[in-house]
């Protein structure tokens, strides 16, 4: 079960770009969640969710903006791998933007998928997160919600795993 007290999704569509915005809350303090979910995801996620992600490697760059990472999915997954480019990483404002540029998750229907994640501290000591994803479709292709549902569910599963790990290990990523 997701520890979210609030989970809101909205959708907007403009010529060739479908945008989803999700808001969520977590009991984990924002800086701690940002460290685990964003800054150390390449190490943490394959460790705590090996059934989903086999490995993540930097194929170009130093891990900062402009770098390209390849995420290899576990055997039995719908997809083999994806490559994404880091567009922006701001540790102070806890924002992260990246674009999925290659891989079978694009399903021959999408040019790319851009993601922007922002975490903010909430008054209760946890955090509020906002995730915006923009699906850039290939010309003449219409994307349906069910096309991207499994990817969104996988991402939610990874988030839940990171959150559960942090709740169970209060000294990690402090």
Structure description:
With 174 residues, the chain is α+β, with helices and mostly antiparallel strands. It has helices at residues 30-39, 41-48, 145-168, and strands at residues 7-14, 17-26, 53-60, 68-73, 81-90, 95-103, 110-121, 127-137. It has an 8-stranded antiparallel β-sheet with strand order 1-2-8-7-6-5-4-3. Strand 1 and strand 2 form a beta hairpin. The protein is globular.
Strand-helix topology:
Layout: E1 7-14, E2 17-26, H1 30-39, H2 41-48, E3 53-60, E4 68-73, E5 81-90, E6 95-103, E7 110-121, E8 127-137, H3 145-168
Antiparallel strand pairs: 1-2, 2-8, 3-4, 4-5, 5-6, 6-7, 7-8
Helix pairs in contact: 1-2, 1-3
Summarize the structure.
Helix content is 24%, strand content 43%. It contains three helices and eight strands.
Name the features.
174 residues; alpha+beta; 3 helices; disordered N terminus
* Share of residues in helices: 10-25%
Low-pLDDT parts are 1-5
Instruction: Give the spatial strand order of the biggest sheet.
Output: 1-2-8-7-6-5-4-3
Distance between the termini: 24 Å
**Major pleated sheet:** 8 strands, antiparallel
SSE topology string: EEHHEEEEEEH
* Total helical segments: 3
Would you tell me the overall average pLDDT? 90
Residue share in β-strands: 35-45%
Specify Rg, calculated over alpha carbons.
16 Å
Shape: globular
Number of distinct beta strands: 8
SS-based structural class? alpha+beta
GO molecular function: abscisic acid binding; protein phosphatase inhibitor activity; signaling receptor activity
InterPro entries: Bet_v_I/MLP, Bet_v_I_allergen, Plant_def-hormone_signal, START-like_dom_sf
Protein name: Putative major allergen Pru ar 1
GO cellular component, one term: nucleus
């Amino acid at each position: 079960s997701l520890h979210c007290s609030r989970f809101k999704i909205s959708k907007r569509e403009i010529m060739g770009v479908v945008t989803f915005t999700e808001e969520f809350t977590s009991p984990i303090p924002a800086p701690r969640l940002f460290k685990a979910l964003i800054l150390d995801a390449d190490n943490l996620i394959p460790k705590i969710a090996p059934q989903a992600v086999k490995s993540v490697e930097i194929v170009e760059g130093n891990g900062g903006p402009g770098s390209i990472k390849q995420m290899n999915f576990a055997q039995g997954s719908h997809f083999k791998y994806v490559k994404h480019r880091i567009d922006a990483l701001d540790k102070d404002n806890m924002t992260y933007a990246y674009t999925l540029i290659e891989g079978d998750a694009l399903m021959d229907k999408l040019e790319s998928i851009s993601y922007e994640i922002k975490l903010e501290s909430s008054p209760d000591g946890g955090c509020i997160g906002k995730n915006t994803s923009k699906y850039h479709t290939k010309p003449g292709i219409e994307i349906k919600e069910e096309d991207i549902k499994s990817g969104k569910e996988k991402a939610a599963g990874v988030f839940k795993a990171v959150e559960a790990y942090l709740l169970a290990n209060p000294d990690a990523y402090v």
